[in-house]
Amino acid sequence: xxxxxxxxxxxxxxxxxxxxxxxxxxxxxxxxxxxxxxxxxxxxxxxxxxxxxxxxxxxxxxxxxxxxxxxxxxxxxxxxxxxxxxxxxxxx
Amino acid sequence: xxxxxxxxxxxxxxxxxxxxxxxxxxxxxxxxxxxxxxxxxxxxxxxxxxxxxxxxxxxxxxxxxxxxxxxxxxxxxxxxxxxxxxxxxxxxxxxxxxxxxxxxxxxxxxxxxxxxxxxxxxxxxxxxxxxxxxxxxxxxxxxxxxxxxxxxxxxxxxxxxxxxxxxxxxxxxxxxxxxxxxxxxxxxxxxxxxxxxxxxxxxxxxxxxxxxxxxxxxxxxxxxxxxxxxxxxxxxxxxxxxxxxxxxxxxxxxxxxxxxxxxxxxxxxxxxxxxxxxxxxxxxxxxxxxxxxxxxxxxxxxxxxxxxxxxxxxxxxxxxxxxxxxxxxxxxxxxxxxxxxxxxxxxxxxxxxxxxxxxxxxxxxxxxxxxxxxxxxxxxx
Lengths: 92, 381
What we know:
The complex is a heterodimer of chains A (92) and B (381).
Chain A lengths: L3 H21 L5 H5 L27 H13 L18
Chain B lengths: L1 H6 L5 H18 L10 E11 L2 E14 L3 E14 L2 H6 L3 E16 L2 E12 L2 E14 L4 E15 L6 E18 L2 E14 L7 E4 L2 E4 L5 E15 L4 E12 L4 E13 L3 E12 L25 E13 L7 E22 L10 E18 L1
Antiparallel strand pairs in B: 1-2, 1-18, 2-3, 3-4, 4-5, 5-6, 6-7, 7-8, 8-9, 9-12, 10-11, 12-13, 13-14, 14-15, 15-16, 16-17, 17-18
């Protein structure tokens, strides 16, 4: 009998694969194909200057933040959903 | 039917092979592309960690260069020089030094509103070797207000021992979903979900468990499934020239570990050239179902790994960065320094004084302070 956690894993993997396939089919081309009216963003591109300020940039330097995340994950039991890639070392 | 069978046999090497070798090229050729390429960048960093009897130092180098209008490639090199006399090592073995080196190569491909990233990372130390492949896809929607991303990583590790002929393997799969949303001209929110599947030898060949004061080899389950979800917001306060970033992350796994991770940071520019940053973090987790500081009998699964125990952690950090004027072909070079103090307080992991594991009256809950520091030079070109 399949355990609930394994069943969830299979379901999740299937969802990820399905999304990959759908995206790969060309979401960007969907608007052209369906002739949808062009979307008007409620925050226009010229209004996003503050979001691109240096203070808002994450990881201006690549390694310091990665090193801190590495320390956090090695000294604890949890990982994932940090917005960066996992995997790597033994640290045993 | 064969396709359906393929989808529901994802634990098999057949599908992982399919995913790595077939699906990635399919995605690369069938999506219409844009988004600016990441800037050409070089970085040199020196990092330092000292805490709990463990010292880790080493350099890291990073370089990224565009190739044409839609591709950039990245290479990096990272070293950990480790000197360990941790409480684990002092209890069961002798202090040691070792080196871990990590190489990675990656490539980004952008066109229109989409970006594909692939990467390979190799980590090598005397008793642990790891190879990990990463694939990530991100696309902007709704005029750039929304960015959705998904990713998959697959890693295979070889686990060895420096004091015996022990050898085993571990496999890891990572599935990531992400969403960032511009909600105001000064605010963006982010959500990330990740499912991780681990199989194989997931413990340490050195670590011991205590059973009535006697040392036994630890024994961990050979499978683990984890889920993590994070939600964060970045808000810019224009009058203070300050960005406030907050994030919460929740983690749970099939070993009954649950963790909460709260972070808050403030980043402020001073005049033209200086940026200062401060941050705090609280992290707390519950213990694995098979963790005990002292077992009453020899359970099938047993561990005294303090990283699997119930503990709380508090962090306080600061950083300062100086932005130089352009120097010839060096664009916006900058020098950054940062340090973080972390306190770990264990709620069910004891330090046995005098090394006597039988004397229950002569023990105290373990805690230690760690310092993390870095200095980094980075430039675009």
